[in-house]
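Hi all, posting the design record for the shared folder.

TITLE: backbone redesign
STEP: 1 of 1
STRUCTURE INPUT:
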């Protein structure tokens, strides 16, 4: 009698849920990067994704004067030892927490969201 492969079956069942969750992520607003926003990012951290992050922050109408600090989280594919995503944590003067801009390995914007008590400009 052949025993069922439960991990494979669970993974196959999780795939449609994962794809459905990804399909519900709306792309972030983008605009031509405000030079002041880009300069604020560059003052805080050196990263090749700063222009893309600045375009998302500009599109979300986050002013450069509100940027207190920035740092990046990195996600790697452990099998290829390659970067697959960056998260820019943007800390604000006007509120607690951070606005997080996620970009892929080529710095293309994925999403923007607020964490730890922060709110997105124009949000609830």
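Okay, here is what came back for every position:
SEQUENCE:
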């Amino acid at each position: 009698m052949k025993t069922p492969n439960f991990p494979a079956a669970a993974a196959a069942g999780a795939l449609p849920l994962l794809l459905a969750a990804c399909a519900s992520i709306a792309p972030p607003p983008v605009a031509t990067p405000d030079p002041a926003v880009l300069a604020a990012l560059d003052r805080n951290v050196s990263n090749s994704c700063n222009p893309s992050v600045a375009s998302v922050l500009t599109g979300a109408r986050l002013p450069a004067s509100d940027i207190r600090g920035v740092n990046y989280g990195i996600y790697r594919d452990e099998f290829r030892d390659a970067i697959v995503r960056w998260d820019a944590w943007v800390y604000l003067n006007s509120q607690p927490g951070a606005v997080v801009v996620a970009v892929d390995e080529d710095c293309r914007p994925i999403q923007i969201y607020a964490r730890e008590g922060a709110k997105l400009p124009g949000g609830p």
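COMMENT: The chain has one domain: 28-115.
Let me know if anyone wants the other runs.
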